[in-house]
Design a protein that fits this description.
Length: 251
């Protein structure tokens, strides 16, 4: 499959998804966007339509992506709007309050559902449909947090770790069918989701930096991509620290 022409984006109101959608549009793609906030989503769609070439399609629908039973309908609507779906970008999620999760397990369950189960369910629905059509690309935004549990964000990390393992198995299963499964692992990204963080230093990237890396990984049909690239080395070091030492670190 060449670079996908018709792309379905979940979590389209996130900063990374918005930046990626603009770059996909520049690639000549038709887009169908799904996000939670109707007003914000419509603003994004209107902006993309202004940027689009006359023949390009840009459409969308507001939906609560924690409601798994809606997913078949959302895929059906997107297929009608685009004609067919070449690629799915799963960009939806939230950054939970770790302390709140520690004091109330219902917060933990909600975070695992939004960042893990929901994303997995979307990938599952995409995989079933792409197997029927015989081609496709499934790209999901995970996080470097899923590479090793750290006291500062291990609930979020557990959800992303679950997503990573699922995508790894799905990639193994779909490889003979020619369907590409891309796991995207950003590090620190300056977005509204990280508004409470002090954003200083070379480790922080912009949403557009990540979008540029996503487009490149899609072109190259990568399996896993760390964004920016240096997070691959950072996480290799973090993963290889012996547990007896790691548990003493405040990370």
């Amino acid at each position: 499959m060449n670079f996908p022409h018709r792309v379905l984006v979940f979590g389209a109101t996130s900063a990374i998804a918005q930046a990626t959608a603009r770059r996909l549009l520049q690639q000549g793609c038709d887009l169908h966007l799904i996000g939670r906030n109707q007003t914000k989503l419509q603003t994004i769609i209107d902006d993309l339509k202004v940027r689009a070439a006359p023949a390009q399609k840009v459409s969308g629908e507001a939906a609560d992506l924690d409601n798994l039973t809606d997913f078949p309908h959302l895929f059906d609507t997107a297929t009608t709007a685009l004609g067919s779906i070449d690629a799915v970008l799963i960009a939806h999620g939230s950054l939970p309050d770790q302390k709140a999760c520690e004091t109330n397990f219902s917060n933990t369950l909600a975070a695992l559902h939004t960042n893990g189960i929901s994303a997995i369910a979307l990938a599952d629905e995409a995989a079933r449909r792409m197997l029927i059509q015989g081609y496709g690309l499934i790209a999901a935004i995970s996080s470097v947090a899923g590479d090793r549990g750290r006291q500062s964000n291990y609930v979020y990390g557990a959800a992303k770790g679950m997503l990573n393992i699922y995508l790894q198995g799905l990639r193994n299963r779909l490889a003979p069918s020619g369907i590409n499964v891309l796991t995207i692992k950003p590090g620190f990204v300056d977005t509204p989701m990280t508004a409470a963080f002090e954003k200083k230093g070379i480790l922080w990237a912009s949403a557009d930096d990540i979008a540029r890396g996503i487009i490149s990984a899609m072109h190259k049909r990568r399996d896993i991509v760390y964004l920016p690239w240096f997070w691959c080395g950072i996480m290799f070091i973090i993963r290889t620290i012996p547990e007896r030492l790691f548990k003493k670190l405040k990370l």
